[in-house]
Amino acid sequence: MSKRILKLGIPAGSLQESTAELFKRAGYNIKFASRSYFPTVDDDEIECMLIRAQEMARYVSNGILDAGITGYDWVLETNADVHEVCELVFSKVSRRPVRWVLCVPEDSPIQSVQDLQGKRIATEAVGLTTAYLQRHGVTADVEFSWGATEVKPPKLVDAIVEVTETGSSLRANNLRIVDEVLQSTTRFIANKKRYEDEWVRSKIDNIALMLQSCLAAEGKVGLMMNVHREQLDSVLDILPALQTPTVSHLSDPDWVAVNTIVDESLVRTAVPRLKESGAKGIVEYPISKIIDWPRDAVHGCGCHIERHSLTFFLAARPMMRPWILAETNYNHVRDCQYQVAVLPMGATEPHNLHLPYGTDTLEADAIASRACEAAWNKGARVVMLPTIPYGTETNQAQCRLSMNVNPSTLGMVIRDLVDSLAGHGIHKLLILNSHGGNEFKPLLRELQGKTPVQLFLCDWFRSISADAQKEIFDDAGDHAGEMETALGLAFFGDLVLKNPDGTLVADDGAVRSTRFDAINKGWVSITRPWHLLTTNTGSGNPHPATTEKGQRLMEVIVARLSTFLVELAAAPVDDRFPFWVTDFRFDG
After folding, report:
1. CB 565 within 8 A of CB 380
2. 174, exposed or middle or buried, with CB in 10 Å at 0-12, 13-18, 19+?
3. Going by C-beta distance under 8 Å and a sequence separation of 6 or more, which residues neighbour residue 470?
4. Which of 42, 247, 371, 583 is deepest in the core (most CB within 10 A)?
5. Distances from the Cα of 260 to the Cαs of 54, 71, 256, 301, 523, in angstroms?
6. What is the DSSP letter of 355?
7. Rounded to 5 degrees, what are φ and ψ at 293?
8. Helix, strand, or coil here: 52?
9. More confident residue, 438 or 242
10. Collapsing DSSP states into helix, strand and coil, what is residue 159?
11. How many whole angstroms separate alpha carbon 352 and alpha carbon 538?
């Protein structure tokens, strides 16, 4: 049987050396020979080839290469159908995303993308730029630039779309950023058909694991020390750990060993404080790799696993996501022309015995963040506002620590947020509601015509997922039933309470009937007193829930919601919004 070989594309040009350096840290030594496009690597199961990043995705898509390293921008530009293995945040200059930006000369009268109607634009990314203009309803002449794009305006073109990391070249050429077209990071991609092969997938995933572990360890060091048990709490308060520090017993029962990971920049201030708090034998050591499983991706147990080697740790390393306001920064926000805001609404209330009090909030956050990410990656400039964790709980007043905020109070909070959005020029808001006790339709009617912000409401557990619920679940349930439990298992499984045998710590979610047949049949509605309706606050049987069911439901909701966000971002707000009506006349 012939030896299996993975055909791997290495980006030629600006990313070549930084890619080789990253691979070396991951344990793969790539060597380049002059005038050769086939570098060697100390792994006889890998065959490398140098390819320009702009062409990489196309060659991976058509199967000439099994996998390759390229930018997300070039995947979109070439419209390549590839499997994204992972994101690798590194570039030729920095460890942050590059930005494709729309630029004009400092003294240009162009202030927004709408001012480019009928103008001429030069760029290397013609496809990205054309799609960006289409989303904004603008028609312009987009021409391919072979280089030196920054010097072309205003004599040759009116504007350019150019990639930048620091902005220094743009400033040197007296260019002003009008809008951000796209943020892009380096991606490890694979051919979809080849990735289905078990050997190929395993080989690619192992490479990805090692590359990501090196990036996760950048700027990190390990600290270990001995601490008397009486000073342990004060020492732990000082440590800005990635996870809960590892505390180990010593031969002396009065002392423990503490091991953790910190940012290297914090060591100079943390070590003196640790010494003052009683830490002894403080040792700093380098970290070469951190095996990084982000909580948002797998929602694991959050454990810190210590191994014999000091170079490997299991940890969570959050990364800034520009569509989430709580994570992004003013450096990004000030130059980004957001088109749509999303406000997730949760609640704080018990959910049977097994789900956390923040279930509605966690669901809202998980759905909103994924839908906004999908829309952002399609070019829509959406911003997810921080999730509001309180809702109307008047019917759960007898359930311990159910935290109620009256509808009128929620209404005032949303009004203030709408006013803030209007002041910042964001005139489209989607309220993503995750709590059945929140009724926002009356508020939308009350604000209609009183604000320039166009308001939209999505109760994700109702119409947008109703057909999928019937297909996926035996009985979705009303509260902490099969549907909510499935989402919990899939996206915050570490917070779902289970018995030692893996079954849920939960009752069957049975509910009591009222004395009125009309209410039981749904002809008449009431505000149901939850302590009389349920046994342990659950309504609906959670036990048939599985992780796979939760993932399937999430896929449906995110696909539908992100499509709407993309359409909403592109839609102009005119006197016919949100309709297309052109020939209808209202004579009322």
Report:
1. yes
2. exposed
3. 476
4. 371
5. 41, 33, 13, 18, 60
6. B
7. -115, 95
8. strand
9. 438
10. strand
11. 4
Residue 38 to residue 16: CA distance in whole angstroms: 13
Q: Whose CA is closest to 371, among 358, 382, 355? A: 382
* Spatial separation of the C-alpha atoms in residues 188 and 538, rounded to whole Å: 44
SS3 570: helix
Q: How far apart, in whole angstroms, are the C-alpha atoms of residue 304 and residue 557?
A: 33
pLDDT value for 65: 95
pTM of the model: 0.55
Total Cβ atoms within 10 A of residue 69: 26
Helices (H), 63-176: 72-77, 126-135, 168-172
Q: Comparing C-alpha atoms, which of 329, 332, 304 is closest to residue 316?
A: 304
* 476-497 tens-digit pLDDT: 998 999 999 999 998 888 899 9
- Number of residues that make up the chain: 588
SS3 30: strand
pLDDT digits (tens, 9 = 90+) for 12-42: 887 888 899 999 999 999 998 877 889 999 9
The count of other CB atoms within 10 Å of the CB of residue 437 is 21
Q: pLDDT tens digit string along 366-410?
A: 999 999 998 988 888 899 999 999 998 888 888 899 888 899 899
Distance CA 268, CA 128 (A): 45
Contact in structure between 504 and 542 (CB atoms under 8 Å): yes
- Residue keyed to tokens 């070989």: 5
